[in-house]
Predict the structure of tRNA-specific adenosine deaminase.
Amino acid sequence: MELALAEARAAAARGEVPVGAVVTDAAGAVLARAGNEVEARHDPSAHAEMLALRAAAAGRADKFLAGCTLTATLEPCPMCAQAASFFRIGRVAFGAYDPKGGGVDHGARVYAAPSCHHVPEVVGGLRESDCAALLRNFFAARR
Amino acid sequence: MELALAEARAAAARGEVPVGAVVTDAAGAVLARAGNEVEARHDPSAHAEMLALRAAAAGRADKFLAGCTLTATLEPCPMCAQAASFFRIGRVAFGAYDPKGGGVDHGARVYAAPSCHHVPEVVGGLRESDCAALLRNFFAARR
């Protein structure tokens, strides 16, 4: 989560909503890390989690990330939560809960749908206050 | 939808699950078209809709696709449905319904979540039998 927080801080410095994500393998080795790049890429789908998932799989011979963990500073949105399922990620760990945009414990609750073929283990609230403070400070400074 | 079907057929010829998508602007001009590239890119998130949305926005000065239509041969999954919302697409039109993997009229029903900030108009069942037949024939041939 420390690496994900660093990615989130770097994103904030670029003027991006400060969310960071890291994919680690079963041994804990970092496969990929990314921050939000929505503004830089002019791509509303360029969330940190999507970028980290794609980069992690691209760096391996396997398109699936079985046994791997996606760690994000914010509860993934429905798009990223479903993407993590498609990549067959083993575990999704996140920091701050996101009642307004989250898709794991809120909103569409992607993994609760019976049609979700692969449901990862979910751990929320890691370094919750640090992750949330980053977002809160970013938006407070913009108001 | 004819273009989306052509993309789906081309995807099948490449060994991909035959799904195609097209993004058109308010005047009906084609901004982007894509077929499924999950196998070619070794990327489980490389659905036709995601690729078409990203390409359509990349080709314009605006990262949003307001007033545009995403036409797909299959009901978008939760990932693509949410992405279409993030791109602020005006309308989502699709062919075959997907009770097993769809995220619009089935499963997570992304647009039904009160937290979904932008809900496009949805039209399902266009050229439904042609779109469904492509998928059915593809999977029948693989069994």
About this structure: Chain B has five helices and five strands.
